[in-house]
Specification:
mainly beta
């Protein structure tokens, strides 16, 4: 070799595509892991080395679906990880207050009271070394009806009698509130709030 022997450089990817012809390989907005080869060449030969690049991803979680239950029923929320580098941690919140860090699933058993009926706003934050993902979902809790009976009446034979009952409780298309008046033998006498 003589001193007039230029030294050249090449960075290539796993497909052999030349990415740089300098000492530096500058990658922007990388999205995937890969292996890169650095080669130096002169008139006497060449040498190379390989370097691995590992790209981690922030978690992407399938957010739990909104659910509706009756008070006292158990309920579970699941949030499987769609993508993201493990380990992923979970933090469950109710109305902004931390309540649990169960992995991927949060359950309320039938003997655990979540409170009165209504809509309960949950937040799930999943985190790893690259960041976090946040999603929101709602649990709607409906109560069983509570009836109020009318006062007893005393009348003479042949009199007309009207009883009007009332009931409080959820009454929607998905959870309709129905009424039934029956006698001591179990015969249905009316399916409205009024018995006459």
């Amino acid at each position: 070799c003589t001193f007039k022997c230029p030294l050249t450089y090449a960075w290539t990817d796993a497909n052999g595509t030349v990415l740089s012809t300098s000492l530096e390989l500058d990658l922007t907005n990388v999205q995937a892991s890969g292996t890169y080869t650095f080669t130096a060449t002169n008139c006497c030969g060449s040498d190379f080395c390989t370097v691995d690049l590992t790209v981690n991803n922030k978690p992407d979680v399938d957010c739990p679906k909104d659910q509706t239950i009756c008070a006292g029923q158990p309920v579970c929320f699941e949030a499987p990880v769609i993508s993201g580098t493990q380990p992923v941690t979970y933090s469950w919140y109710l109305f902004g207050t931390f309540i649990n860090n169960n992995y991927g699933e949060f359950c309320i058993s039938g003997d655990q009271s979540i409170g009165a009926s209504g809509d309960f706003e949950f937040m799930l934050v999943t985190s790893n070394i690259c960041g976090n993902d946040t999603c929101y979902f709602t649990l709607t809790v409906n109560n069983a009806p509570i009836v109020a009976c009318p006062d007893p009446q005393t009348v003479c034979t042949g009199s007309d009698v009207v009883f009007i009952g009332s009931a409080s409780g959820i009454n929607t298309d998905l959870c309709p509130l129905t009424y039934t008046w029956t006698d001591a033998a179990g015969n249905v006498l009316s399916t409205s709030v009024e018995l006459d």
